[in-house]
Amino acid sequence: MSKHLIGLTIIDAPYSALNNAGTEASQATENIVTVKKLQKGRDTYPYVSGQAWRNWWRTTLEHEFDEWNSSPIEREKKIAFTAADPVSYDDDDVFGYMRAQSDTQDGKKVNLTVTRLSPLKCSPLISIAPQTPTNDFGVMARQEGNPVPYEHQFYSCVLQGIFSLDLSAVGAFSDVNRTGYKNISSSYVETIQNAGGTQEDEKAPWVLPKEIRVRRCQQTLEALPILSGGAKLTSHLTDVTPKLIILSVLDGGNHPFMNLMVEENGEGKLSINALREVIRDYGDRFCDSIYIGRRSGFMDELDEDLCKLDNDIDLSCEIVYDSPNRVIAELSQRLETHIGDAS
Question: Exposure winner among 28, 47, 119, 286, fewest CB in 10 A?
Fold first, then answer.
């Protein structure tokens, strides 16, 4: 099985409207901007879509890392797509693509569509505890005449999300003529070869040099402490970097960190017992330490338990407990050991 960098990310959103659902009719104002939210029974949970989170991630990589090359967006009628060039553009490799196209050869229409499943996968960011958004009333009153009223929603909650990066898939491309597996066309193979890519055998994927794959994986992880984005930042400025993060490298594609956060008395909490259980149950599948980063001032009540966890000799995995930035930097430096050389 392939190795996956997995993570649980917790974002504090104390007065936020990070992802909006658009306008909604209101008898009072006739226009209200609502936040995205879902219902579980009678309870309301604000959330940020996975697409929005990925967009913050992609934009941060583009703006903060000089070596990171983002693919241009092309439009054809009502369709938009990237260049589908994962050698030249890092985000085509890490975030995936689909480019539907065809050509006529010998009088016949030939399907030249290429697709790439994103090695980076993530969930939506969802409030741990139920929270009903607040309607905030405002007016546009800088013009002459009557002011224009409007409303928008915001919330105060703690958002959780999980992500996974397939380390073996970054920088590896298949040309198998099968839906979902045809990442590149036959004519693109020369581009990979010119970039130093190699192929173990005819059925194996083409693989870019290790230094390129390592850099892309490291920068994808290193973007988290400087992540920025979200709606309504002019009036609800929210820091969307992780305030609590749990990371490791796992042999396999499942995600045992999914259910570590629980609701207690209307607040989100980290279940230390659930974390212990996961470490014990999956101890033989973790390929690295368990990295736990917590920002001081956020969930300070966890500090004692996490320090004890760090020194628990009954756990088969080493626990690294520090600030989010430091554990991310430490794991980033170790990613090279989990990414093999191209054959």
Answer: 28
- What's this model's pTM, rounded to 2 decimal places? 0.92
Q: Are strands 79-81 and 74-76 parallel, antiparallel or unpaired?
A: antiparallel
- pLDDT (mean) for 295-308: 95
Question: Checking DSSP bridges between strand 148-166 and strand 32-35, what pairing results, if any?
Answer: parallel
Helix, strand, coil percent content, the chain, rounded in steps of 5: 25, 35, 40
Taking the CA atoms of 228, 229, 234 and 239 in sequence, report the sign of the dihedral they define.
negative
Tell me if 95 is assigned to some domain.
Answer: no
pLDDT tens digits, 68-120? 999 988 877 777 778 889 999 999 999 999 887 655 455 555 556 888 999 99
Question: Can you say whether residue 295 is alpha, beta or left, with left for phi > 0 and alpha for psi between -120 and 50 degrees?
Answer: beta
Q: Are 312 and 320 in contact (CB under 8 A)?
A: no
pLDDT tens-place string over residues 119-168: 999 999 999 999 999 988 877 767 676 777 778 899 999 999 999 999 99
Question: By residue range, what is the domain housing residue 35?
Answer: 3-50+120-174+185-338
3-class secondary structure, 201: coil
The count of domains in the chain is: 1
